[in-house]
Amino acid sequence: MRDLSSALKLMLIEKKDIFYSIIFGFCAGIAAVGIFSASGYMISKSALESPVYALAVMIALVKLFGFARALGRYAERYFSHRATFTMLSHLRVSFYEKIEPLAPRIFQNYRSGDLLARIVGDVESLQHFFLRVYYPPIVLLLVFLCTILFTSFYSPYVAIVLFLGLLITGFVVPAFFAVKQKKIDKNIREKRALLSTDVIELMYGFRDLKIYQKLEEMEQQLTKTSDDYICEQEKDGIQAIYNHSLNTMVSLIISWFVLLLSSYMVTADQLDGLFLAMLVMASLTVFENATPMAVLPSHLENSRHAAARLFSLVQDEPIKDQEIETTVQFDHQKAIALRMNNVTFAFPGDSRNALNHISLSFPSGSKTAIVGPSGSGKSTLLQLILKFHTINQGEIFLDDHPIDLVSQEELWKRANVVLQENHFFFGTIRDNLMIAKEGLIDDEMEKTLAKVKLEHFSLSDPVFEKGENLSGGEKQRLAIARAMLKDERLWLLDEPTSSVDALTERYIYNHILLQAKNDTLVLISHRLTGLEKMDQIIVLENGKLIEVGTFDELMEKKGYFYQLKQIEKSVFM
């Protein structure tokens, strides 16, 4: 219920609309009771052959209640739905603000299909929290209590029966079905997440499934997942109908009991027969307000699980950047210096350390290459500098500022970053370059494209979603062009030219080193050629620091780096 309380706080922002929803809902409910009660009384009065003028007041009262009910129901629907849509807006904005800092690392813990099911499906499920769970019981209590108070003037016994009916239909029956509903709703949510995941897997992996002749097998799995989801929905539908039917049956039994009790009281001269029809009609009508309680267990469980799944994405994250960041600002005219002291890091849920007691220094304006075999921790080290993760032990400093006191926004704003995987937006080459910074002109972008050997592209050339119409090398060069256009003083490059031929790579690096002449540059590379210009080379293996030095120093030492270099020569020569 803790997660629902978070949704409740966002909902209570719209206090005025919630108040109006309850007030007009009560007016509509009590007006309905008034219509049928007055009609019952008027029927009894008419049976005594009363003159028309004696019924004029009751006729006018019935019409007044009719108008009040219609207007009240319209206003209740208007304000309740406006409150719901506004609540969903607050929920989406609040959730986005919490999940946005987690975006670089959240895909390590959740599959994209499951994320989609939570962010879209679970948020939409919470729209029923206010409409079906929060305010209907309040309206029910208000209408019932007023009706019970009204009937108590004519018969305390009938009032007691209605009160017992309120307890049964409003609380006992819903509570009974709420227990059964938990398992059904849990299964529905799990099946929906699994279906979303399988659909996305099929769409993204269609080409590979087709190549390896596994498409039919995946389609069968998807069909089975869909059938399981439909089966759970059918169970939920049957349960909802059963809940509604039982609630209606109990309501009718209570109304029959009111009729029998009132009839007995009339024969025993304890009740004026003129009020018999009025009490029975009031009983039949007041239980209409108990109808929403039949579906309350389903929506309560639905909302509870949706809130739990939604907020579980953000509630246990170790980084709360928006709470700890200070006003640390870097001087744009000065290259940022980096320092790592005894840094140890392991991915959540992984017992193996990705980095072990790493201590390094990247002086301002220095050029550093980080090399080592695959899985040695090179990319992880860069991700820690970018605050994608929180270190388990040790310290990282940026210009002598602890990294915990530097906001992600300030850090990313001051860095030219090229990762192993870079996103490209649907649009044009110009659109994908313009995100580098404001105020770029076509001539500047065209010159930068030439520096990365992409001069054959026009700025108006299309780029498909995720750059599907670009080769691997073209994607990397376009990402490098964006970094060069950003032109900040810290360069963090992770295998930026792994898909580029050697000649083009040398050409691009010459331009990067020229532009970053006075900047701090950190380059992660599997290739060992062209590292002679680096101020220092860091060698990692299995998350441990093996060697540090210049190219000549490491070659003279004839250690691990020297061995890697000899292996590279034997492979490519």
Automatic annotation (TrEMBL):
Its main location: membrane. It is found in: Cell membrane. The chain crosses the membrane at residues 18-40, 52-72, 133-151, 157-179, 249-267. It comes from the Bacteria. The keyword Cell membrane does not apply. Keywords: ATP-binding, Membrane, Nucleotide-binding, Transmembrane, Transmembrane helix. Pfam families: ABC_membrane (PF00664), ABC_tran (PF00005). Residues 21-302 form the ABC transmembrane type-1 domain. Residues 338-567 form the ABC transporter domain. It is a multi-pass membrane protein. PANTHER family: ATP-BINDING CASSETTE SUB-FAMILY B MEMBER 10, MITOCHONDRIAL, ATP-DEPENDENT PERMEASE MDL1, MITOCHONDRIAL. This is Thiol reductant ABC exporter subunit CydC. It comes from Metabacillus rhizolycopersici. The lineage of its organism: Bacteria, Bacillati, Bacillota, Bacilli, Bacillales.
